[in-house]
Amino acid sequence: MARPASSQADGRLLDNILGMVKRERMVSGVDESKKTVEFKPPEELKKILQLDIRAEGRSLQDVEEMMETVVRYSVRTQHPYFFNQLYGGIDEVALASAWLCEALNTNQHTFEVAPVFILVEHFVIARLVELFGWPEGDGIFSPGGSMSNLYGMTLARYRKHPEVKTRGMTGMKPLVAFTSDQSHYSVGKAASLLGLGLDNVVKVQTDATGRMIPQALKEAVAAARAGGGEPFFVGATAGTTVLGAFDPLDELADVCRDEGLWLHCDACWGGTAILSEKHRHNLHGIDRCDSLSWNPHKMLCAPLQCSPFIVRHKDILQECNSANATYLFQQDKFYDVSYDTGDKSFQCGRKIDAFKLYFLLTCHGLKEMEERVDAAFSAAEYLSEQVSRRPGFRQVLATPQCTNVCFWYIPPSLRQEEESPEWWNKLAKVAPRLKERLVRDGSFMVGYQPLPDKGLVNFFRMVTKCNPKPTPEHMDHLLDEMERLGADL
Prior knowledge:
Blueprint: H1 12-23, H2 42-49, H3 60-73, E1 82-83, H4 92-104, H5 115-131, E2 138-142, H6 145-160, H7 164-167, E3 175-180, H8 186-193, E4 201-204, H9 214-226, E5 230-237, H10 249-259, E6 262-266, E7 291-293, E8 307-311, H11 316-321, H12 354-364, H13 366-389, E9 393-395, E10 404-409, H14 412-415, H15 421-428, H16 430-441, E11 445-451, E12 456-463, H17 472-486
Parallel strand pairs: 1-11, 3-4, 3-5, 5-6, 6-7
Antiparallel strand pairs: 2-8, 7-8, 9-10, 10-12, 11-12
Helix pairs in contact: 1-3, 4-12, 5-12, 6-8, 9-10, 13-17, 16-17
């Protein structure tokens, strides 16, 4: 019987993984002629994988074959034609930071077990506070934007009612949160988890471009008060998931100031615009928010996961979340215990994600990052122009606000028909069928969705990111492929 791979821990497995990453060009320079995915349906893929855990373990040869299979049938998110989600490929610098973090395998809660990474997180949070325009503040890296949005709502509730930490919500008026009808679903999940209930999350009307309407927010707040509720939180968005809309933060901040509400900004997607002199105007007013979420693992293409949450009020994270566990956060340690910042977090176990962002920014420099952001926006602008010019394509919005380009592909069979309700029903079936052909062909991965609250049937949502750097040629090729694969629909 062959010896299990675990008994041959002499570096060969790691060498093989590195060799595979280089051979498959998984980090940079992906061969554009290769498929984005070798798609297999679930039942067929189960047979190929032959998932099994054995008493005797696997040989090194078996493990190497398994890794080859994993790579072959996984989505190549680093492929220049992967536009399916708001994240994507990482470069060599990003991967190096992630591998180093995993190899060191420590916990971001006390200075004694993560001395370097505690200082890195302090430094990065301080720079982000400055970058987003606050004179002071605090923050923490979380497991993702959904958790960061939960942090924002939790701090808002604590600031409104500090006693909730000890007494709970018994006897309180129903707390009411407000967010746009285009916001991320995590706002509702946060309200559910905190005990507010989904019925106390008011979806505020947006304009034709998907931006929250300040007057509609005012009216919704008044209605909630008249109904016996207690407004406390507004969740704005900078770069909505589908349309890429930037809410008018300055005007919303005026409403929140007048009404005594906490203003949180979900900038997970569009927050990366802060790195660009040309595009940071989209975030005008973000310095007036009380808290914000940002996901550098999205447009900036830091390694998943990398998600800072920052707050303008310096001590509130500690006050709201601290549990003062004496077995971890002892106050009589031999060093300055103010660096034991883990008590600010919901979590005890926490990844050293701040290092990934620090390493990416310090190695590449802010100038390179700005150029990448500008390239992502430029590619989206180019695609938007081409969509507006090509027969058979139609934009959902005339001009993209972020790097989201939303459009319909109208096959030749529908181009001469009257645009009746029946016509729109037919068009709604085009995107799912064309998406299937793109995926099975392996040429592109692009998302689609309807927006029922705006009366919009299924359309494609193309999102450009910083890595691999998108080009006009990539955009042209996408439209060419849609025409090729969708001509007979």
